Amino acid sequence: MLNLGLLTVLGNLGLLTVPIALAKMLNLGLLTVQGNLGLLTVPVALAKMLNLGLLTVQGNLGLLTVPVALAKMLNLGLLTVQGNLGLLTVPVALEKMLNLGLLTVQRNLGLLTVPVALAKNVEPGSFDGSRELGSFDGSSSFGKNVEPGSFDGSRELGSFDGSSSFSKNVEPGSFDGSKELGSFDGSRSLGKNVDLFENRSRGDVGSKISKLDLGTKEGNGTSGKYVKQQNDTTCAGKMGYWKKGQRFQGLDPVTGMLISGKILGRAGKVTGVNKDCYNVQLDNDGWTGWFNLATLRELSEVNENIEMIILFSNDAVSLAKNKEIQTWIDNKVFEVVPNEGQRAISVRWIVTEKTKDDGLFIKARLVARGFEEDTTSLRKDSPTCSKESVRLLVAFASSKQWACNTVDVKSAYLQGDKIEREIFLKPPPEFNNGNLWKLKKMVYGLCDAARAWYMRVKSALNSLSVKMCSLDNSLFIWKRNGKLEGLICIYVDDFLWAGNATFKKCVIDELQKQFLIGSSASESFTYVGLRIKSFSDGITIDQTQYASSLVPVPISSARNMQRKSQLSESEKTAYRALVGQLNWMATHTRPDIAFDTCELSVAFSKATVTELVRLNKLVKRVKNESLQLFFPRLHSFETCSLECYTDAAFANLPNGGSQGGLIIFLKDDSGKNVQSSGKPGDSSV
């Protein structure tokens, strides 16, 4: 009907696709309204024009809030139409009035089904009454399912001829072409490729002003419009190529505020004048559009958190919850019993959005509030494998030319042994019929669930003649005829193993019969944050992906000049967190930064801007250096020896403390324990 393409506008649920012409025709910005799906962004003018409040209607995606006047104006009930997101409820009259079928269009959350007529190729002039879709000249009521000519404005919702207010909120004449909303006489196109925030072509990015150069918001409070800013040359230089899905953050050159967002795609040629322009989605208000990354100072990449709490309800969440309950049923976790006043523990849902190779998916986990139970007499400790055990396993695998492998157990806690005490749960509201659930097995949230799972795994391994290491209760060893043939490390429900074909057949395959396995990988994978890769000459371990997620603490130019100033409380919090992250890397794959992190750690209580600047420099160094631990294939593992180097300095730390360090190598009979070509990433252990 409008025939001017689709425009993606911002909503708190994500990106919403609407006809461009509708946005241009109304041209009053956006308004966020509350619905049970969360916050939904709609054109302000639609709410202002109708001005009759909001109505919550039922759809299979949940409850959706729409303007009351839209339903009242059409007054023909609701119709459920099929979309790839599920079933979506829309006013029947919208479909019936247009009567051109349905069209599936792309939106950021997936595919959305809308009436074809909204995107049908209709020539200008279709609003004069001469076309199939109806007239605005007015001969009958708009609110009924009638023939063309029903847009006369003679009923309660106002007139389209400019003779009166449309809904007592828009000035008379605003639909006659003389006002900002444009004309309905068909004399001009209603919707060129228009930026919703600025009434100009999207192609107008060739100047020094990008589509959005992150200025300050105008004070109208509704339009979401941004004031244009000139490019800041302090960020000039090579920035590299940003890929879709990467996250960024930096400082606004004018306000000094932290700006962060996500790359949606390129917005200019790689080598053109707009080489630093990208389509982005901002975190602070969710705005989506073109943005010149060169305007930001201290620009850096941020890893997107792949587990975000979903705050709205839809079909995907309902399906995930049903799947979780079905898992409980399949594993015979509980039995339904009458509520006779037993002491019961409540539960809660943890709904997260996760990423796999084939895209995003919703996962729901039902968790018991274990803190409501008396746990004073319960043993809660549960071991996990140490970093030394992981390295030992990798060293054995490399020398014996075994492939490293990983498997994770699906819904591990629910696959444990029967529970030994009585625990009653209050079912979640969606499945509560007045009864209680008596647990037969451990569930997530109980304080001793982790230990119960560990004991279950230990029992299974012992039954397969796999023995626990006396130095690490989460490292298990399998020997046959006195010869080592396999190793396995346990980190809750994640197993890392290496061994020969016999070990796989006699141990791993048998474990997979006892437990339901979620996923498995070999040769190249990530295990508890460590990327393990196998090569013909050895195995490497690195934390490159983890390093890329590190974000320097933003420091404004003015703050950078105050080097001796004590850190603020918020700066101290960020400082401690970042030092902790670096220390995690130093103790796992980056021993080269161990001393720096130690020095930064002892300055916690009296840290100044000087230490903060040094910390940021260390972060940039870690991100720029792609170093890794390399485990070569040793010639004869049976004749290997340990070689240890130590060093210490007296009272060399800022607080007067002394610093010591050591590094231990496993050396084969050839006498070689370190191989280095002087290039990053070649250091070996």
UniProtKB/TrEMBL annotation:
Origin species: Meganyctiphanes norvegica
InterPro entries: DNA/RNA_pol_sf, RVT_2
Domain of life: Eukaryota
GO biological process: DNA biosynthetic process
Name by which UniProt lists this protein: Reverse transcriptase Ty1/copia-type domain-containing protein
Residue ranges of domain Reverse transcriptase Ty1/copia-type in the record: 331-551
